[in-house]
Amino acid sequence: MSVNRKRVYGLGLLLITALSLPSCQNGESSKKERAEAQESEPSVEVNFVNLKKQKPESEITLPGDLLPWEETDIYAKVKGFVQEIYVDRGSKVKKGQLLATLVAPELTAKLEQEVSHVQEWRVKAKASKDYYKKLVASSKTEGAISQNELDLSKAAMEADSANLKFAEAEYKATYELNSYLKVLAPYDGVISLKGVSPGSLVGPDDINDDKPLFVLEDAHKLRLTVAVPEKYATELKKNGLVKFTVDAMPGKFYEAHLSRDANKIDKDVRSLFSEFDVPNPDGSLKPGMFSEVIIPIIRDEETFFIPRTALLNSTKGVFVIIEKDGKAHWTPVETGNIVDDKVEVFGDMLSDNMKIVDNASEEIRDGMTL
After folding, report:
1. What's the predicted TM-score (pTM) here?
2. Angstrom distance (rounded) from CA 71 to CA 73
3. What are phi and psi of 253, to 5 degrees?
4. Are 336 and 303 in contact, with CB atoms under 8 Å apart?
5. From the CB of residue 279, how many other CB atoms can be counted at a distance below 10 Å?
6. Closest to 73 (Cα-Cα) out of 174, 196, 232, 178
7. Alpha helices per DSSP H over the chain
8. Tally of CB atoms within 10 A around 2
9. Residue 251: which H helix or E strand, with range?
10. What is the spatial distance between Cα 66 and Cα 221, in angstroms, rounded to a whole number?
């Protein structure tokens, strides 16, 4: 921006000669003219700059939270007593590893009952099938077996076969329930919470009471979550790179890439929740750490930036003072990003190379001669 300076004085000095007029009326007129001149023209030095579109790069620092890649509350799927626990807080586990065993005598007894039901119906189904085969063979001799007897035997065979399938399904369901007496890890991770002890009664009801057996976290990769203010939401680049620090290791900078965002502005905080993936192979970063995230900000297109001193904040609103035809014109604007000593402005009346007052103040009134 080019800068021009112009010293503007009131016309009082130009009208001093009017004081020497002998007429009282002329003296009063001179005072009035001096007052009007002082009201219509500033007695301050006015500096000008030419409005130009720019595309400056800047950075903003926002708070962020490091969250585990996966976090799971592990509950008991069946009601039972904790028999034995094999892990504790901080234990590293593998997918499928046994974490705890439960005992449920009623469930064990039901499984044994289902086993006997399957065996019983298996015997009946085999007997009715064999009997039906004999009748079919005998029916080849004319008049030996009636068609009604053959039909009844076939119906009995099919019924016993259906009962066998039902008993097998009941056994399978009960067997699955009994398998839940072994609590297994759903993926590789670290136990961050052990919420029970041997002898505790646990079951599906605990889910409503928020009392998990364990909390498992996968921290081989972390999610850096940041609430990006609405005014910067469109300036986050896909796969964009940011830097961040954590209090535990001051002075050390980490990098992360933008991976996903909520695709909506949260109405409560007027921000876009965004996630940056952070590799954590050595486990030096811990879930729950507070971080300060440095995000590069740059507009896709050039916009108008002015010195902060050219922005006029008044009780009537926010303005820039445009010089047009030697007059001051207060022009309303909206502000955007702030980069160093410059502020981004938007307004329908703004155009390239427009001459604006650099040292805006309310002393330079709207319509005043510059």
Report:
1. 0.64
2. 7
3. -105, 135
4. yes
5. 13
6. 196
7. 24-40, 105-138, 147-179, 206-209
8. 9
9. none
10. 10
Q: Distance from CA of residue 202 to its chain's centroid? A: 34
Q: How far apart are CA 162 and CA 251, in angstroms?
A: 72
According to CATH, what is the number of the domain 3-56+302-357? 2.40.420.20
Amino acid identity for residue 182 in this structure: K
Q: Distance of alpha carbon 1 from its chain centroid, rounded? A: 39
What are the φ/ψ torsions at residue 68 (nearest 5 degrees)?
-65, 155
Residue with tokens 């889910």: 207
CB atoms within 10 A of CB 339: 16
pLDDT in tens, the chain (370 residues): 545 555 544 433 333 333 344 444 445 555 555 445 444 555 668 899 999 888 777 788 999 999 999 999 999 999 999 999 999 999 999 999 999 999 999 998 999 999 999 999 999 999 999 999 998 888 888 777 888 888 899 999 999 999 999 999 999 999 999 999 999 999 999 999 999 999 999 988 766 667 899 999 999 999 999 999 988 888 777 778 899 999 989 889 999 999 999 889 999 999 999 999 999 999 999 999 999 999 987 776 788 999 999 999 998 999 999 999 999 999 999 998 887 888 989 998 899 999 999 999 999 999 998 8
Size of the chain, expressed as the number of residues it contains: 370
Cα angle value 153/155/158 (rounded, 5°):
110
Give the homologous superfamily in CATH for domain 60-68+220-297: Efflux pump adaptor protein, beta barrel domain (2.40.30.170)
